[in-house]
Design goal:
Distance between the termini: 24 Å
Mean pLDDT: 92
Radius of gyration: 13 Å
Order of helices and strands: HHHH
Strand content: under 5%
Largest sheet: none
Low-confidence stretches: none
Number of domains: 1
Helix content: 55-70%
Length: 73
């Protein structure tokens, strides 16, 4: 399948990353539950109180990208 977006690239990819993390870690039943009244995915991400365990998983996902970058250089 497709790889996860990266938050350290373009603003568009950061928005995609925020959306993906909300889909993975925020409880929801419909898409309106995810973004609520926020104008952007990043503001919805900033407004959600992620658990520490979820934040650690996000950091690990970023580390995987960094390892792939280092391997390719």
């Amino acid at each position: 399948g497709p790889t996860l977006p990266r938050r350290d690239r373009s603003e568009e990819e950061k928005e995609q990353w925020c959306r993906a993390m909300l889909l993975l870690f925020k409880p929801w039943r419909s898409d309106s539950d995810i973004i609520e009244s926020h104008p952007t995915w990043s503001s919805a991400w900033n407004g959600f109180p992620f658990q520490d365990a979820h934040r650690r998983i996000m950091v690990n996902m970023d580390l995987l990208h960094q390892c792939k970058d280092a391997r390719n250089n």
